[in-house]
Each structure stands twice: as structure tokens, then as C-alpha cells.
Amino acid sequence: MRKKLVKLPGGKVVAFRPAPIAKYLAGSTSTTLMQHRPASVSSPPLPPAPQENPTHPTTSDSNRQVMDISILEEANVLIIGCGAVGSYIAHLLAAVTSLVITIIDFDIIEYKHTQGARTIFEAGQVRKKKVYAAKEKIERDYPLSIVNPYPYNVLDLPAIVLTQLAKKAAVVINAIDSGDGMLRINDLFYSIVEVLYVAAHRAAASGHIIMTAPFATACLRCCMDIESADDIRTLHAEPGLGVDIRIIAHHCVTIALELMFAKATGQPIERWDVTRNIFYIANRQQQHSPDGPGVIMQQGHKRPGCPICSTAVV
Known about the structure:
The protein is α/β, with parallel strands linked by helices.
């Protein structure tokens, strides 16, 4: 039998081994998938909560254990981009449980960023680097969380630095609006760690989240059916209601927590169909969501011969 080989983004060819998340997505629940779970956390997930009305169960699976979020304490999360959506994601994650949150962003806060609850930043933080302001606010509001600021452009950081950060992370959340930056993250991180690419659309009336998992899902290039950064349409400084931005951020945090919890415990994800990794978020009644706000899920497909996510038999 010929050995399956896979070519990594750097050009190196290695023996293909399915990532643990691939086994999980295929329905296996027998393996503990979290590689960065702190040794000090040993409490098992809580048993199912008692139901006040047995005739109206709160879940379709009575064996489903309540998500004991403390199992994720001190886990590493890497967030790339600390603008409107990214800043809310960082703040919401810290509110849920104590985490080590690394944030990469080179931008400086302007007065407009503090208006209309577009971001978590305050007027007194104008002219500060976003990553330092985020650290200040998050660690003030949630002292058990730690924020590691990286005030750099993701395009300027050496690949070895980025990959080291990715290897430490339980999940990566990409919230930048640079096409070149998004594709650099995709090409470097796809084979390493699960990445959530989140974006708000015009006026935050809608948004999307694309989840990529090593070898288990299509990569970002295939999900978006693009060849280069020129094919990605991005919005810069697009105004939107703070409440709509927070809804998109909330969905991303929910997906990130469920994904990390599944990796830590081997329990199946029940919040969405795991065969679908593209989430379209509607904040308004529209053509895609005629009945009103909601989430529409789709599946991204690997394109034959994709150098990032398609495996080759050599």
C-alpha cells in the first residue's frame, strides 16, 4: 500500500496523519483532543442538570453533559485583529472563563472607534495601541484572564513566530480585514490548528464565520473559492450598530468555546451540523433569511489539487 503524503505550505512533504479533530468530526468521541489543557485542571464535566419538567427536555440527548467551562481555564486563544468584531470577541471570551489571550494588531485607537459601541474601547484610550488598550480593559474587567499584546502587522511578523503562536493556541480567531493577511494565516495555520475567520458585512447587517480544521475541512481559499487576496472584497472602517457587531462576535465566541470544549472532552458538538463549516449570520430580514435574523450553515468543499488542504498520494 502506498503511503499517503501531504505537502505543507512551506514545501516540506511529510507522512499524512489525520488531525485529532478529523476523528472527532467523523463522530469519534473516544479521544481527548485538547493538547494545551493545563495540567492543574482535572475536574470532570458536570452531570446533566435536573429538568424541572421532564416532559419538555432542554436537549435532544439526555446523556449530554453540561458544558463545564472551567475545563478551559488558562487555555490559549490567539486573536488576530482587535477592531470592532475582534475586540468584542476578546472581551466576551474573557468574561466566560479565565484564558490566556494573545492579540495581534498594529492599529491605534481613534476617536471614531469609541463611538456608538463599535468597539470595547473607551474615549480615554484614544491614541493608544489597540492591543495595549484591550489588555488594559480586559484585565481590569476580568482579572483572572491574561492578555499578551503583539502590536504588529501580521504581514510583518516572521512565519516562525506566527507558527509558534499557533501551536500554543487551542483555537485561532482571525478578525482582520486584510486579504493578504487572511491568506497568510490560512496558508501557515491550516495544517496546525483550527481557525475561525470572522467578518462583518456592510453596516453589520450580516456577517460570516468560516471554520477550518487541519485536513478535516476545506481551507479558506477553497471555502471562499478564491485564488489570491485580490479576490477578497473587504470593508475598511465600515460603520455598524454596536449591537449587530456584538451579535456576530457572540456567535464566534459560542463556536470557539464549543469547539475547544469538544477538543478537551471528546464530546460531540450539538450546536451545529459539524459537516458544515461556513456560518452566514443575518442580523436583518433579507433574501438569505426571509423570516428574520438567524444563522445559515453551508459546507465548504476542497478543490482538487489545492496546495493547502488537498492531500496527495505519492
